[in-house]
User: Fold these one by one.
Assistant:
Number 1:
Amino acid sequence: MMKNYNPVSAQDYIPRDLLKQIQLQRLQKIVAHEYEHVAVYRERMDERGVKPSHIKTLEDIALLPFMMKKDLRDTYPFGLFAMDMSDVVRLHASSGTTGKPIVVGYSKEDIDVWVSCMMRALVAAGVGPGDIIQNSYGYGLFTGGLGAHYGIENLGATVVPTSGGNTERQVMLMRDFGVTGITCTPTYFIHLCEKALQMGLDVRDFPIRVGLFGAEPWTEEMRKRIEGLSGVEAFDIYGLSEMSGPGVGIECECHNGLHIFEDHFYPEIIDPETCEVLPDGEEGELVFTTISKYAMPMIRYRTRDITHIIHEPCACGRTIRKIARISRRSDDMFIIRGVNVFPSQVESALLAVEGSMPHYRIILTRRPDGLDNMTIEVEISGEFDKIKTLEELQAKFSHSVERILGIHAVIKMVPPNTIPRSEGKAKRVFDNRMDSNNQ
Ligand code: DLL
């Protein structure tokens, strides 16, 4: 119990009764603050006849209206700010795929809370003073770079702020600086390891032992690939700009779910159709309330991320609850010939095949007769040059996809290094069905 105990993480081990008291006090305070300062939200509460004084228990949170990404877009840029601009010390923005970015703002105290959560995340991954952490999350408006940066620095570890890109140089610095840990997307780390091999180096020979990987969904199969390729222990770290950024939750050494820093982010799981709150253990959409963020509180924010809450106590001794790894977002889903498909299922199917490479993309097209096609491009590794082996591999992929998804996909084997590598979040799905329609 409490193997990795560090005073930085004291709140991870707080008795649950006390945690609930703290959560309630914080919730009451934040709802009153939001009601007073954010007109859009006050109007919504008024429409429902809900006043801040109605929040008497944690369950009363169900009285409050939800917030969605659309609310952030509709109030662009500062419409959801609940503090004077003179008290806002930092802005971040996430680009999104369509239209205006969403903007988030932080007070000095909000930043302190964010840093403390990031420190707790690093401690859970076994990072501490003496470690040299290469931070390859992008610096800038994206929360990954600066979020991880200040956590590492305040913990007393050494941060190497490489940001994303210039991969060859990153490999060189990793080796020359004796880097012991890395923070980046899982996809970028694989790219780094492969680049090292191209340079005649093997990351397994470097002192690096730990990685905090997140910002995009990844699978258990991908974890095995990463650990095999690099020898690092891979931790899944979760977060989103609307809460703060990285460090909303992380795995501990047990690697069977992500602890949520519940004293700052109050989680709920809802049925995305009916919006009904679901009990622990049931899968649904993750909803968060920031109970200690004042410049821009988010109340019952619908993340679109699909998971369930794990209520059972964790062997690490932490009392804060866990969520299951997030392998899908409700808006990632695509429908092909009537079957719902998530990219992570395709990843699991591909990586279940021995000898596969973790580089793939999914291309959706519509045939002139209206039928949808799914083509999966998979990269072959340099070793697969014999046609027979290639054909065998292709058949194995096809079979694995059909077994897991229940539909047929065209498997296209492409030469090594032809699928573009991402420095940040990977784009896996290319839905060209509209274009095919217009042809
Ligand atoms: O991706 C913050 C972050 C940076 C998290 C670095 C972890 C590490 P956004 O750009 O706002 O923020 O994207 C948030 O990314 O709602 C999830 O859909 C997805 N996501 C983030 N972490 C994970 C993860 C950052 N570990 C959105 N597993 C979230 C699966 C993740 N999905």
Note: The mean pLDDT is 94.
Number 2:
Amino acid sequence: MKNVLVTGGSRGIGKAIVYKFAQNEYNVILNYNTSETAAIEIANAFPNVTMCKADVSNREEVSEMFSFIKNKFGHIDILINNAGVSSTGLFQDVTLEEWNRLMGVNLNGVFNCTQEALPEMIARKSGKIINISSVWGMVGASNEVAYSTSKAAVIGMTKALAKEVGPSNICVNCIAPGIIMTDMVSDYTLEEFDEITSQIPLGKIGSTTDIASLALFLASNDANYITGQVISPNGGWVI
Ligand code: NAP
């Protein structure tokens, strides 16, 4: 059984990824930060899901999480950097505190978890890292400059790291979802959803399962020759 760590596995896309991998006979470590009740509920549903609390922006907590994983499972085969936060507002109004909060989770979180996971992967000459970015990291969003910046940085990190660790047989890829129905987009109005949907060739908002299915494929041996790629399930919204 392969071990997969899913950050931000308590809600939304991460939760769907946890379900997908648990149902496909992976041993899943579900990382969460604040949603303990939700994490317990998921872990109780599967014998092969273990929960582990850590704020991914906090290096000490991430190191403790990796020590826990090492003691309990030995190593991880697949790291899925999914935990993320967003905020909207004019660039001019973004405080340094808010900027740092977004970079802390969306970018430093990926750095922290990836740096902790890599030594073991390099030693074993095997591993897969899947980073969850966003279409906004590809094309940028007005009113979401900080979020777009953090997600674009994750794309850059994915490409550069894929080159660096490819010789160690480690694949690093990025999923850049379009709009997906989760808590993250819960403050969009119905009119905003209608407006966005009208711009999507497939005519619908994406589901968390759309992203989880792609993550499962990228983690599988069928995707062993894919690295450094940004794959964007977005219904044709961004082509
Ligand atoms: P969500 O429903 O708001 O869930 C966010 C998840 O991230 C939660 O499980 C949360 O855990 C976790 N998280 C947040 N801060 C954390 C921290 N400091 N440490 C550990 N975990 C933390 O969001 P989502 O829509 O599923 O988003 C998941 C990923 O997809 C994010 O990276 C997001 O940027 C990306 N994405 C989403 C969309 C979309 O339309 N929804 C589109 C493109 C990309 P707790 O609740 O336990 O704190």
Note: The helical segments are 12-23, 36-45, 59-73, 96-124, 135-139, 145-165, 190-199, 208-219.
